[in-house]
Amino acid sequence: MPDLTVLAWVALAVASVAVGVSKAALPGANTLAIALFATVLPAKESTGALLLLLIVGDGFALWLHRRHARLRALLPLIPAVVAGLALGAVFLAFASDVWTRRTIGAILLLVIGVTLWRRRRAAGGEEAAPAGRVAAATYGTLGGFTTMVANAAGPVMSMYFLAARFPMRQFLGTAAWFFAGVNLAKVPFSLGLGIIDASTLLLDLVLVPGVVAGALLGRALLDRLDQRTFERIVILLTVTGALYLLLA
């Protein structure tokens, strides 16, 4: 079990709740969890620890949204995602902890920028072009790489699902199956790289109740929360965390 301060444990608890909320109701909120985990733990260790909590959250997402999925829409993504996962595994095998931390920070800033750009286009009334094979290859590869290195594929894949013009319920259901499959596929890579071990399991065992609480909270807030206000808070905190990772 890592020797952490009380403040560090509080940060990890908040991050675990954010994982549950993101899986149940608000995709993208886990960027806050990514920043907090990578701030408290060594960068590579944070990736492995967060992965197991995300898998727990995936179980809740499937429970809530599985019936609305368009599973056939995921088939074109599979080859590109596998390629992205392999690239990410190679990067983690050779990158130092410092560069992994900085890469996580840069990825977070990138996906936040993409999210803000998407919102600006939507506010201007512009529609994304339907997703095709090129889009599937591009988003799939980038999604596989970012999820392997930083568990940060949420905003990337959200853009793909929006480009495919999924209604909200189909969006949530298809994303639930996608991330459940991808996160399980990452486990052998993570074990092979040594970023998941006995101490990781003990840490996550303590934090799992936070994921459960976050999922229940997200379910309760699904039809009540002001989405725009919540996204602004998450973006602000994530930018702060990403800048810290880049400059620390």
From TrEMBL:
It is found in: Cell membrane. The keyword Cell membrane applies. It is a multi-pass membrane protein. This is Probable membrane transporter protein. Belongs to the 4-toluene sulfonate uptake permease (TSUP) (TC 2.A.102) family. It comes from the Bacteria. Keywords: Cell membrane, Membrane, Transmembrane, Transmembrane helix, Transport. Pfam families: TauE. The lineage of its organism: Bacteria, Bacillati, Actinomycetota, Actinomycetes, Micrococcales. The chain crosses the membrane at residues 48-64, 73-93, 99-117, 175-196, 202-222, 229-247.
